[in-house]
Design brief:
With about 80 residues, this protein is an alpha+beta fold. The chain has 2 helices and 4 strands. Strands 1-4-2-3 form a 4-stranded mixed beta sheet, with helices on one face. Helix 1 crosses helix 2. The protein is globular, with a radius of gyration of 12 Å.
């Protein structure tokens, strides 16, 4: 089952969030300019921790902007 939820960025496992900082910075600029991005896709690991399936750069951009939450599609069927 997939659900759309608002989640706290601090609740997402941040281990895989390193990467292309230039792209994340560009996304942050576009977010500030009012561009709308699709929700990120998250799954839960075997411990119930939210993990990023798609949207690492968008999450990094939101963190750079100091945002606290994001919209996410959570796939509860992922292992």
């Amino acid at each position: 089952m997939r659900t759309l939820e608002t989640v706290a960025l601090q609740d997402i496992d941040d281990a895989p969030l390193s990467g292309d900082d230039a792209l994340s910075a560009h996304y942050a600029e576009r977010m500030l300019a009012g561009d709308v991005f699709p929700p990120v896709n998250l799954g839960r690991n075997q411990h119930g921790v939210l993990c990023v399936c798609d949207g690492r750069h968008r999450i990094r951009a939101m963190l750079l902007l100091g945002w606290q939450t994001c919209d996410a599609i959570i796939d509860s069927t992922r292992d």
